[in-house]
Amino acid sequence: MVRMESFSSKDMAMQAQKKILSHMANKSVVHMFIDDTSSEILDELYRVSKEYSGNRSEAQKVVKDLIKIAVKIGVLFRHNRFSPEELSLAQDFKKKLHQGAMTAISFYEVEFTFDKTVMSEILTGCRDLLLKLVDSHLTHKSHGRINHVFNHYSDPELLTQLYNPDGSFKPNLTKICTGLNRLLEEGTL
Question: What is the rounded distance in angstroms from the CA atom of residue 120 to the CA atom of residue 16?
Answer without folding.
Answer: 35
